[in-house]
Amino acid sequence: MYLLKEELQLESFGECGGVGRCATCVVQTSGITGNSAVKDRNEPATLSKLGFDEANIRLSCQIYITADLNVNDAEIKILEL
Questions:
Q1: Domain boundaries, the chain
Q2: Which of the listed CATH numbers 3.40.50.1000, 1.10.10.60, 1.10.3230.20, 3.10.20.30 matches domain 2-78?
Q3: Each residue's pLDDT tens digit in the chain (81 positions)?
């Protein structure tokens, strides 16, 4: 989320500052494995409130930036809500 918010400077993106509560940073992912694929903390509850139950829908602020993202050529796409 830091990269998207600070470098791309998207309006109304990451309103909660990375806590996983606002869901303004919803993304679609593919190829994410290992620790980067784990949904924990507030992410499952926040996504559930929005009706998302797909494993590939994530909050970008909750994706750990690790070497796992490079293993399977991970892709992250910003969703328009």
A1: 2-78
A2: 3.10.20.30
A3: 666 666 766 677 777 877 888 888 899 999 998 888 999 889 999 999 999 999 999 998 899 888 888 877 889 998 877
